[in-house]
Specification:
alpha/beta; Oxidized Rhodanese, domain 1; five-stranded parallel β-sheet; 5 helices
Length: 134
C-alpha cells in the first residue's frame, strides 16, 4: 500500500489511507470518515467545496478549496442553475489528475452532478454524504 507523502507510517495513518481508498472506490465518504482523513492531511487530497458564495457564510471545512457555483437558493431541489453553471466553469485541464478529490455541497445533490463530471474525465473523486448539513 502506498501512503500519501505526509501520512505517517503508523496504524492511524494506514487506517486513514484505507478509508480514503474505500471511499474513492465507493464514490462516497461519510463525515466521520472525512474527519479521520483530514486529521492525517494527505498532500494529494483536495476538499472541493462547490456551493455558492452565499452558502460559504454558513461555514466551510478548514483547508477546503472553494469552487463557487450558482444555485437556486429559493428552491434548493432545482439543480438546473447549478448544472448550467458547473458545466460552464468545470475545465478538466485546470484540475490535477494526480490529486484525489472529495466534493462538498450543502446536502448532496450537487456533488452527484459534479462527481459524474470528475469521473467522466478520469479523476479520482468521491462525494461527502449528506454534505455540509451532516
Amino acid at each position: 500500500m502506498v501512503l500519501s507523502p505526509n501520512m505517517k507510517n503508523d496504524s492511524k495513518g494506514q487506517e486513514a489511507e484505507k478509508i480514503l481508498q474505500r471511499s474513492l472506490s465507493n464514490e462516497m465518504i461519510s463525515p466521520e470518515q472525512l474527519h479521520t482523513i483530514i486529521t492525517h492531511a494527505p498532500r494529494d487530497l483536495v476538499l472541493l467545496d462547490i456551493r455558492c458564495q452565499v452558502e460559504y457564510r454558513e461555514g466551510i471545512i478548514p483547508g477546503a478549496l472553494l469552487f463557487p457555483n450558482d444555485h437556486n437558493l429559493e428552491n434548493r431541489e432545482d439543480t438546473s442553475i447549478f448544472r448550467q453553471c458547473f458545466e460552464c466553469l468545470f475545465k478538466p485541464e485546470k484540475f490535477d489528475s494526480a490529486m484525489r478529490y472529495i466534493l462538498i455541497c450543502r446536502s448532496g445533490p450537487r456533488t452527484e452532478i459534479a462527481l459524474e463530471a470528475f469521473l467522466e474525465h478520469g479523476f479520482s473523486a468521491c462525494e461527502l454524504v449528506g454534505g455540509m448539513l451532516e
